[in-house]
Amino acid sequence: MDHLYLCPCHFGLEAVLKRELTDLGLNIVRVEDGRVFFEGDAAAAAKANIFLRTAERVQLVIGEFDASAFDELFEEVKALPWDEFLPVDANFFVSKAYSVKSKLFSPSDIQRITGKAVVEAMKRKHRLTIFPKSGASFPIRVAIIKDHVTVSLDTSGESLHKRGYRKLRSAAPISETLAAAIIMLTPWKEDRILVDPFCGCGTIPIEAALIGRNIAPGISRSFAGEEYPFIPSRIWNSAREEAKSLIVRDRKMAIEGYDIDNDIMTAARQNAAAAGVLDTIHFQTRDMRALSSSHQYGFIITNPPYGERLGPDTRTREVEGSGSNIKRVSKSDDNSGLPALYKDMGEVFGKLKNWSYFFVTSYDKAQESFGKKADKNRKIYNGMIKTYLYEYYGPKPPKKQ
């Protein structure tokens, strides 16, 4: 039996996610701002969770309807076929609700009314007044856009950007899903050198290495849907075995990551080791201004600073844990160093003849300071921050004989 699923993503990356889903053989139903809907059976949920690089979650749609009043919301949610998905001991709860341009605009009230409606539906089906909620967790998500309601079960649990390898991070790190999407928006292939001169904790080089070796991003983590009775464990096991069979472990690549903070470079190496790709990335403490290469053709893909003081003394270093295990340094809104930095970027990148370079930033005078207009620019929302991916294309290398 096929179900309707939706995958949220960063605004501006819908086309990349659509291409990923199509490559997995899944049927696209529709594409909306920040969301792609597709159809598939139970195996599609496992496959999408394990293989997708640019989706934030995989949500199974329980129902869609219009509602402009809370009593409508209650009755419509109660009428959905919850008994087909929730066992009697399910620990169900509304984990997230949001509303955009809708008459129902209070997330807390939406959560409360939805939760109450699910309880009433389960009472009617199982003839119980109290539910043990001793079983698996079933997080429910509600989205209301222009009074159109989508109610779904989250099969991912933790967001898919949490691959499991990033134990240490730098200030304002780019998310794993956004890093992967930016790489996939470029023509970079694993046989070309890739350099990130502002690599921070290594996310862009690591995601490139995972792409180059065809390592599925979710291969080593768990998902909420693994506890759902309608997605049997054999399906998850099969998807993981397929992912393992597709890895190209001996593929050699030239991927380099640089940063001016030596501690952050240590963190990047540890993250790459956790991802299983340290052997294919060269990390080095190095100022962007010292960037050079003997390669005639190559790619720079990077996320330069665009809203913090520059320099290693103001970088955030964080280790998962608590108390004395976490060191933090406050962020700053001082952008006074950005014009000079982007000017230097333009000069340094320009010396690499025949190279292509791509950088994502919210700095509104990036092109002006860089000194060259981009061949293309693409608006992408990094959370609530509007950024642009500036794309500069060098010539294609001659074809190998």
Textual characterization of the structure:
By secondary structure, the protein is of the alpha/beta class. It folds into two domains: 3-154, VC0802-like (2-Layer Sandwich); 168-216 and 226-392, Vaccinia Virus protein VP39 (Rossmann fold, 3-Layer(aba) Sandwich). It contains ten helices and 16 strands. It has helices at 14-23, 42-51, 70-78, 107-126, 176-185, 203-212, 233-245, 262-275, 338-350, 366-370; strands spanning 3-8, 27-32, 35-40, 59-66, 91-100, 137-145, 148-154, 168-169, 193-196, 255-259, 281-285, 298-302, 318-319, 356-361, 376-382, 385-392. A seven-stranded mixed beta sheet has the order 2-3-1-4-7-6-5. It has a seven-stranded mixed beta sheet with strand order 11-10-9-12-14-16-15, covered by helices on one side. The longest helix is centred in the N-terminal third of the chain and has 20 residues, at 107-126. It starts with a strand and ends in a 9-residue tail after the last strand. Residues 308-332 have low confidence and may be disordered.
Question: What percent of the residues sit in helical stretches (DSSP H or I)?
Answer: 25-40%
Give the oligomer, counting copies of the same chain as homo and different chains as hetero. single chain
What is the global morphology? elongated
Strand order of the largest sheet: 2-3-1-4-7-6-5
Gyration radius, rounded = 23 Å
Q: What is the C-level CATH assignment of the largest domain?
A: Alpha Beta
List keywords for this structure.
single chain; 401 residues; alpha/beta; VC0802-like; Rossmann fold; 2 domains; 7-stranded mixed beta sheet; 10 helices; 16 strands; 28% helix; 24% strand; elongated
